[in-house]
Amino acid sequence: MTNQSFEINLFNRSYDRQKFDSGSLPLNNYIKTQASQDIKRNLAKCYITSNDESTIAGYYTLSASNLAMKDIPAAIGKRLGTYPMLPSVLMGRLAVDKNFQGLGLAKKMLNNSLTKCLNAPMASFALMVDAKDEQAENFYEHYGFIRSLSSPSSLFLPMDNAKKILDKI
Predict the structure, then answer these.
(1) Of these four, 128, 139, 158, 164, which has the most CB atoms within 10 Å of its CB?
(2) Predicted local distance difference test score (pLDDT) of residue 85
(3) 71 by DSSP, 3-state: which?
(4) Distance between CA 48 and CA 69 in Å, rounded?
(5) What confidence score (pLDDT) does residue 161 get?
(6) Angle, alpha carbons 45-46-48 (nearest 5°)
(7) Distance of alpha carbon 8 from alpha carbon 136, whole angstroms
(8) Average pLDDT of 77-81?
(9) Interval 118-144: pLDDT, tens
(10) Cα-atom radius of gyration of the chain, to the nearest Å?
(11) How far is Cα 169 from Cα 83, in angstroms, rounded to an integer?
(12) How far apart (Å, rounded) are the C-alpha atoms in residues 85 and 128?
């Protein structure tokens, strides 16, 4: 961990998006070219992690979604009734710039996103993610995320488990 102080704030145009490089072209392109359009269209909220007023050390996005009951293991689904879809929040993207990797920022952003979900004025059953690779899948599973039955790279964390997870982060 670092002794640098990082804050997480809503995206604004004062951040230098062009210098961001996470090592993943799709994640880089999103923050550079698409994030502001998604925000303007109210398709996603984008949160920036930074240690100054212009550098993007990392970012994540949140948007409304739903989780199909068929994607949930029976042991979890049996207590939920017969709803075909469950309200959820999608963390569509989570990325850390290469210059800031290894400082615990992904964990900090996960904590921040779970806190936002738990304190939101509307209910959601789970925080969902689509992991881009095996390393990301392992990261989320470490914090208790469960693989979707129909798409193993899609994972979810029920909100009733999120409170317990926050103590680990």
Answers:
(1) 128
(2) 94
(3) helix
(4) 32
(5) 87
(6) 150
(7) 21
(8) 84
(9) 999 999 999 999 999 999 999 999 999
(10) 16
(11) 31
(12) 13
